[in-house]
Write a structure and sequence with these properties.
Strand content: 25-35%
Order of helices and strands: EHEEEHEEEEEHEHEHEHEEEEEEEH
Oligomer: single chain
CATH superfamily of the largest domain: FAD/NAD(P)-binding domain
Number of strands: 19
CATH class of the largest domain: Alpha Beta
Bound molecules: flavin-adenine dinucleotide
CATH topology of the largest domain: FAD/NAD(P)-binding domain
Number of helices: 7
């Protein structure tokens, strides 16, 4: 018996992957979607999502992704539980190895493996994610109007997040491990010139205090020079220490930028390898929102559909 060759495989089950699945399933491509280690993607680790169009009163992240999944399933998407551990993208058909050793073969591939927000690794951070801890100021800043917040980090992302948060918060404290910022000069100048932003130097967040009912109330900071710990009251913690695009298995095959985001041809989802498309945060270091991920997921499905047709596959 010959192994099945899929017309289209999709890696990742966040907004980008599930939108690509919806469009390609409705175009009768019978896509197969590999869900990865985080079924539903990054929105499953947050609570309220208020900025996704169509949900006037907001919706919980996990619930929203369940709706996305059901919509993609309705038109015949085949879901596979598993993680891709290797990819031979130049082979024809393309070969994707899954964690339990199975090899999946496909003519076209959409990569929508996301860019995971880097976190501090504290148990309290995980427990309070969506309850006062966040990794996205654009997403969650508006929940903290007139409240004091801290931003952890010292790069451009941290400065951007801090500046954005001053629209809502009277006091934004940037907690940084060193005594100087890594951010570009222009971003540093903007942040330092903003009277709502203060800096806590040479310090690391050791613990976050609060509960899922009342939210965050304080953090424990450790001064890395003196070793002393102190408690600092705050209403929210925004972790802004960067993102890691999930592109490790494509290294050496697909073109990436210096931060490991996949490169696509401008205005499209085409990568440098024929038949391989990229959608969502994995190819977007700028916007990283659910709606933009879904938008490029749609683009990838249309690009793949036309590519398959042009190649009579
Ligand atoms: C705490 C938090 C709150 C947020 N709140 C909002 C918000 O309110 N509004 C908003 O618009 N955006 C929000 N965002 C951003 C939003 O979550 C992302 O922009 C969006 O999820 C990106 O979608 P994506 O499909 O590109 O990737 P992701 O959602 O990151 O999904 C990636 C998928 O790829 C899979 N995967 C990874 N590696 C592999 C592999 N090797 N094999 C197979 N599968 C793999 C994962 O399992 C996952 O299913 C938030 C982000 C965070 C972290």
């Amino acid at each position: 018996m010959t192994e099945e060759i899929y017309r289209l495989a999709i890696l990742g089950s966040g907004p980008a992957g599930l939108t690509a699945a919806l469009y390609s399933a409705r175009a009768n491509l019978a896509p197969v979607l590999i869900e990865g280690g985080e079924p539903g993607g990054q929105l499953t680790i947050t609570t309220e999502v208020e900025n996704y169009p169509g949900f006037e009163h907001g919706i919980q992240g996990p619930e929203m992704m369940e709706v996305f999944r059901r919509q993609a399933a309705r038109f015949g998407t085949k879901f596979i539980t598993g993680v891709a551990t290797a990819a031979a993208l130049k082979k024809r058909p393309i070969e994707i190895t899954l964690d339990e050793g199975k090899v999946l073969r496909t003519h076209a591939l959409i990569i929508s493996t996301g860019a995971s927000a880097k976190l501090l690794g504290l148990p309290a951070e995980k427990h309070l994610m969506g309850y006062g801890v966040s990794a996205c100021a654009t997403c969650d800043g508006a929940f903290f109007k007139d409240r004091n917040v801290i931003v952890v980090g010292g790069g451009d992302t941290a400065m951007e997040e801090a500046l954005f948060l001053t629209r809502f918060s009277p006091k934004v404290s940037v907690v940084h491990r060193r005594d100087q910022l890594r951010a570009s000069k222009i971003m540093q100048e903007r942040a330092r010139a903003n009277p709502r932003i203060g800096f806590v130097w040479n310090s690391a967040v050791e613990d976050i205090h609060g509960d899922q009912k009342g939210g965050v109330v304080a953090v424990t900071l450790r001064n890395l020079e003196t070793g002393e710990s102190s408690r600092m009251p705050t209403d929210a913690v925004f972790v802004a220490i960067g993102h890691q695009p999930n592109t490790g298995i494509f290294r050496g095959q697909l073109e990436m930028d210096e931060l490991d985001y996949l490169k696509v041809k401008p205005g499209s989802t085409f990568t440098n390898i024929d038949g391989v498309f990229a959608a969502g945060d994995v190819a977007d270091r700028v916007y990283r929102q659910a709606v933009t991920a879904a938008g490029t997921g749609c683009m990838a499905a249309l690009d793949a559909e036309r590519w398959l047709e042009a190649h009579h596959l």
